Amino acid sequence: MSEFFGRLKEAFTTRPSLVAIGERIADAPDRVRVAAQVGNRSGLLWSITVPGVVALGKIFTIGPRNPSQIYRLHAANSPDKIAIRFRDRSLTYAQLDNRMDLLASGLMRRGLSKGSSFVLMMKNRPEFIELQCAASRIGSAAVSVSWRSTADELAYLTGHSGSKMIFFEDELWPTVRDAAKKLGMPATMLVAMSGTVKDAATYEELLAGEKTKLPDIDPEKDGAVVIYTSGTTGKPKGAVRKFPKDALPATLRFINETPMRVDDVHLVTCPLYHSTAFGFVALHHILGAEVVIMDEFKPENFVRDIERYRVTTTAMVPTMIHRVLQLGDAEIAKHDTSSLRAIFSGGAPLPGPLAIAAMDQFGDILFNFYGATETGLVTLAKPADLRDAPSTIGRMIPGNEIRLLDDAGNDVKKGDVGELYVKNKMLVAGYHHDDDATKNSMRDGFFSVGDLARLDRDGRYFIEGRKRDMIISGGVNVYPAEVEGVLEEHPDVAEVAVIGVEDQEWGERVEAVVVRRPGSKGSAQDFEGELKTWARARLSGPKVPRTYVFMDALPRNPTGKVLKRELRLKKQAAGGAPGAKL
To answer: What is the 3-state secondary structure (H, E, C) of 468-511?
Structure first.
């Protein structure tokens, strides 16, 4: 059979216009195999009812690539199953699907249509998911913005994305009002989540109208999710994610590498405006699982919710895992967390000692993934990988291609560090209104976000830092992640960031910004000497930090990434002298 498909593909490739068709037919056996494996292992295959089969047929007739269509399937297949829990509210799949249609109709009445866009500026809540999917049903784009944005930032992001409406949390009204004034946006296009803001429209008004016929859309051309990157190095860039033909197969390949199931209860801890949180909601809703949304992460509430809802999976950034472990064994033991089967860590580097500590606490259920807003999910480290190599980002997920390249664009040798480039079916369409940034990130169809990585002999990848963060000291390349990993192994170090500081003799010197673990003893001077001795025993000369700075906490963005640019700016403001306090 595979030989037949191979010959068919070869025949098709003789006519350029049919190349894509030939590739899809030749790839069909793998698609079917992966879908069958996921359906069987997750229980999805055995949960399909007759109404579900009928709905599935309709979906494929009109085009299955619209991501919101999965809710139509589950609304028909298991209408009374809980899709979302939030505070004291719950929504079934049938209710959620119905609200998406009502919202899509409401958006059209406000003048939104194919190619238009609107901004979401809110904390975690079900409306975030409803609006994202309502947008896809009319070919519009939902633009995710941090609820911590200032009025100037919101005005820039709204204007840059060309958005015509802003949906916002009521308490953020002063920020939204000031941004709207700068943009000249009318009050009718500002939508508050409840009726506490008298000068804006309300969310319920959009739900109150009748359903209208929704337009026929092409997911590859109409509609998108626009997520603005963290902006750790400057102005944020809007990554535009379309819905290509191969989105679902690529998603299923990742699910196939995990223990996700139909009966999962997934706890949302990260901000939904970030790719990690929204992505894992989508993964679990594809299976028809239940999602519990935390409006704000607090470690004590995290362990409480696991017991209360019998949570089976969650996705977190490493900082959150660290904060949970800081509760201590006795506090964690007050709650039954035995239902947990998978903790997914991503969004920022996972320190090796933290990975081991988390598995020692919760069992070998930790998965560390690597991906980006621009690339989707690329690698996955399973518990066994993390036991053997605690700082690894794991092995390449099927469906991806990875190249590690030097500055000349040549592949580096195994074990050497190179810039990580990815090619898959989930690459973003590019950066919104920024062709130069898109072009600079691409090389021969591969995309890079500037991360440096190496590949070991066992096929596991390791992130060595950002290309822009690499330090050249005395002509030697120093990768911050290696130095950070060594210092993080010290029992009295809670977290550390390594940066390059201008130096007349060395060009740059390595400096470590350290947060001490609570309860550690000794003066800062004594501890600095201890760390220097520790580093010299484990690192070659150019990699050993020459200066140390101590802070109460590292500056991070809301998704857990350390803001090294901010550390450098503080260093400059402090005069740049060795040991200057930040």
So the answer is: HHCEEECCEEECHHHHHHHHHCCCCEEEEEEEEEEECCCEEEEE
HSE-CB of 323 using CA atoms within 13 angstroms: 15
Query: Cα separation of 441 and 169, whole Å?
Result: 34
CATH number for the domain that contains residue 489:
3.30.300.30
Boundary residue ending a domain (169, 197, 228): 228
Joined together, the tokens standing for residue 145 give 């913005």
Among candidates 372, 463, 382, 499, which has minimal Cα distance to 426? 372
- Provide the domain count of the chain: 2
Q: Does residue 472 or residue 111 have the better pLDDT?
A: 111
* pLDDT tens string 121-142: 999 999 999 999 999 999 898 9
52 contacts 73 by C-beta, under 8 angstroms: yes
Nearby residues of 242 by Cβ (< 8 Å), 6 or more positions away: 219, 220, 221, 223, 224, 428, 429
User: Residue 131's domain is classified under what CATH number?
Assistant: 3.40.50.12780
Give pLDDT tens digits for 510-520.
999 999 998 88
Task: Give 367's contacts (C-beta < 8 A, 6+ positions apart).
Answer: 258, 342, 343, 344, 345, 380, 381, 382, 383, 394
Asked if residue 257 belongs to a domain, the reply is no
Please say which residue of 228, 244, 265 terminates a domain.
228
Domain residues for 521?
470-573
Model confidence pLDDT, tens digit, residues 330-350: 999 999 999 999 999 998 888
100 occurs within a structural domain: yes
CA 321, 326, 327 angle in degrees (round to 5)? 105
Does 312 reside within a domain? no
pLDDT band for position 190 (cuts 50, 70, 90) = very high
pLDDT > 70: percent of the chain: 88
